[in-house]
Design goal:
There is one protein chain. The protein has an eight-stranded mixed β-sheet. A five-stranded antiparallel β-sheet has the order 1-11-10-9-8. 57% of the residues are buried. It has 314 residues and is of the alpha+beta class. Residues 10-15 have low confidence and may be disordered. Strand 6 (184-189) and strand 7 form a beta hairpin. The longest helix is centred in the first third of the chain and has 19 residues, at 37-55. The protein has helices at residues 10-13, 37-55, 62-75, 119-129, 137-146, 154-157, 160-170, 236-241, 244-254, 259-273; strands at 7-8, 20-24, 95-101, 106-113, 134-136, 184-189, 195-201, 222-224, 228-234, 277-283, 288-289, 296-303, 309-313. It binds aspartic acid. Aspartic acid is lined by residues 26, 28, 177, 182-183, 201, 203-204, 213-215, 221, 233-234, 236.
């Protein structure tokens, strides 16, 4: 499988690292054509707003930058997270999210939750206000309510677009990644040199039996350490089986291999297992990579001193 590469090595051109934010809006594997113009405009607008609104937080907090960016993307119906979450086999929307701070490796995650307007905010509450790391289902919803997270009615999350996607595959035995991409994620390096990562998703259309993907699993779809911050997207089962995000962070710590090579090799491992997807990653020097082995991945980046850059296709 060919891997589209997007890399940067800011430490080679500047003596000091650049505070930076990277975001993705998913790398769905099924749909090979181009997006409709309307869907593309909706997605590009969401990416632009996420980068613009989160950019200034790079001054003081990577954790704040990734939570703002992911919250904006969750509010945009173009993406499979929060408001635009895909439907389960039963016609419900069950969301997963995780957030992690690199400097302390503090983490918070939730899975299988319904009705939480911004699942990433609930995950952040777990990180900051719970002795636990990972809460699921009704327990996670109760905790989120106690912590003051905003809930919304099913109508807020509903879209005919997602419903039609469910109907088109419900009678098959398969699950499907959103035909038009969708899981969202962010990684950031702030002005203090602290890294953070966050990922949020509705998972896979037609998922069953409380299925949870890689996104909320610390070390699989989301990970941050003092050496790297990683958010993945793609067919979650494969990312879980390869312990994807922690493998990248640990290779950054223990080897001298450049970040973009590590990410490309990690995606090769996914392809060897039979899966597809993409990743955004930053290291402590501000080097970054955004490779994917699907036809496209919504993605963007911004630094404190630059304007947002957005891309979709390889
Ligand atoms: N990784 C997500 C999951 O398997 C889906 C995606 O990234 O599109 O739940």
């Amino acid at each position: 499988m060919t891997i589209a590469k997007a890399t940067g090595n800011s430490h080679l051109s500047t003596p000091r690292f650049q505070p930076r934010l990277l975001i993705h809006g998913g790398a769905g594997t099924l749909f090979k054509g181009r997006l409709s113009p309307e869907r593309e405009v909706l997605a590009r607008t969401g990416l632009q707003q996420a980068l613009e609104q989160a950019k200034s937080a790079l001054e003081h907090s990577a954790l704040e930058a990734v939570s703002i960016a992911v919250s904006v993307l969750e509010d945009c119906p173009a993406f499979n997270a929060g408001r635009g979450a895909v439907y389960t086999h039963e016609g419900t929307q069950e969301m997963d999210a995780a957030i992690m701070l690199g400097s302390t490796q503090a983490a918070g995650a939730i899975a299988g939750v319904k009705g939480i307007k911004n699942p990433i905010q609930a995950a952040r509450q777990v990180l900051e206000h719970s002795p636990h790391v990972f809460l699921v289902g009704s327990g996670a919803e109760t905790f989120a309510r106690e912590r003051g997270c905003v809930f919304a009615e099913p109508a807020y999350f509903h879209s005919d677009y997602r419903w039609q996607q469910l109907l088109s595959i419900r009678n098959s035995q398969s699950t499907a990644l959103d035909h038009n991409l969708g899981t969202v994620g962010a990684v950031a390096l702030d002005a203090h040199g602290v890294l953070a990562a966050a990922t949020s998703t509705g998972g896979m259309t037609n998922k069953r039996y409380g299925r949870v993907g890689d996104s909320p699993l610390i070390g699989c779809g989301t990970y941050a350490s003092p050496w790297g911050a990683i958010s993945a997207t793609g067919h979650g089962e494969y990312f879980i089986r390869s312990a994807f995000a922690a493998t990248i962070a640990n290779r950054l710590r223990y080897s001298k291999t450049p970040l973009h090579i590590i990410c490309e090799e990690a995606l090769e491992d996914i392809a060897q297992l039979g899966g597809g997807g993409g990743v955004i990653a930053l290291d402590a020097q501000g080097n970054f990579a955004m490779p994917f082995n699907t036809g496209r991945m919504y993605r963007g980046t911004v630094t404190l001193s630059s304007s947002p850059e957005i891309d979709i296709y390889a």
